[in-house]
Design brief:
single chain; mainly beta; Jelly Rolls; seven-stranded mixed β-sheet; seven-stranded antiparallel β-sheet; 1 helix; Pirin domain-protein domain-containing protein-containing protein; metal ion binding; metal-binding; Pirin_N_dom
């Protein structure tokens, strides 16, 4: 049976321009509420944010979410109530398991805006003790290969250490792969879950039009920057082809 894809076009997502923050919401978030796009599997929030220099999200609290940041460009300054202070750069993936409750702030560090994806997942177990971890991945690792950057706690190759090699540990049935796919290249990824979600990162800018930016085909369906697709996995494999003339940065979620 072939995979079933339901496309989520960039222009159909929630979005806002607050001057200091330019953002797109794949799922319901803040003032954007859409009952048809509340969550998918354990995936609850996926915001693609651009934060202006010397601004950001002040100290605020969370509980009962697995919160991870995928940094695309610029530098993200993270501080939290667990005593963690860190400057995250391109290729870094930072995971906060909020559990019984944490407070944190996230701000643009330095003279450039920071572009990152803020992703929240629903934990498999409630009232976990809060934890923090960081993983670092190079462009070379991700070039024309799917690299596992997030995976469930206890899975093979997943360390609970604050800093380690391999994927960041998440207390949710989510595995996240990332790639930088060159024009003309094709990748195939075997999926273990019944669902998946794919997202093409907006590396070309905040308002990438349909005639600009990278272009890929996922199982034959064309996606541009900012586009995503819900996948009901039937064949067990997903085929991603770069059919454009620019490198495409693609995230692929494997979900139960």
């Amino acid at each position: 049976m072939a995979n079933k894809l339901i496309v989520r076009r960039s222009q159909d997502r929630g979005h806002a321009d607050h001057d200091w923050l330019k953002t797109f919401h794949t799922f319901s978030f803040a003032m954007y509420q859409d009952p048809t796009h509340e969550k998918f599997g354990a995936l609850r929030v996926m915001n693609e944010d651009r934060v202006a220099p010397k601004t950001g999200f002040g100290t605020h609290s969370h509980r009962e979410f697995e919160i991870f940041s995928y940094v695309v460009s610029g530098e993200l300054e993270h501080k939290d109530s667990m005593g963690n202070t860190e400057i995250l750069k391109r290729g870094d993936v930072q995971m906060t398991s909020a559990g019984t409750g944490i407070s944190h702030s996230e701000k643009a560090h330095g003279a450039a805006q920071v572009h990152f994806l803020q992703i929240w997942a629903l934990p498999s177990t409630s009232r976990l003790p809060p934890t923090y971890s960081t993983r670092r991945f190079t462009d070379a690792e991700k070039t024309d290969a799917f690299v596992k950057v997030v995976a469930p706690v206890g899975a093979q190759g997943v360390s609970a250490e604050r800093e380690a090699s391999g994927p960041a540990p998440v207390h949710s049935p989510i595995t996240l792969y990332a790639t930088l796919l060159s024009p003309g290249k094709t990748l195939t990824q075997t999926m273990n879950g019944r669902k998946g979600y794919v997202h093409v990162i907006m590396t070309g800018g905040y308002e990438v039009g349909p005639a600009k930016g990278a272009e890929v085909k996922v199982d034959g369906t064309a996606l541009r920057e900012g586009d995503g697709a819900y996948m009901h996995v039937g064949a067990g494999e997903v085929l991603v082809q770069n059919t454009g003339d620019k490198v495409a940065e693609v995230l692929l979620f494997d979900l139960e």
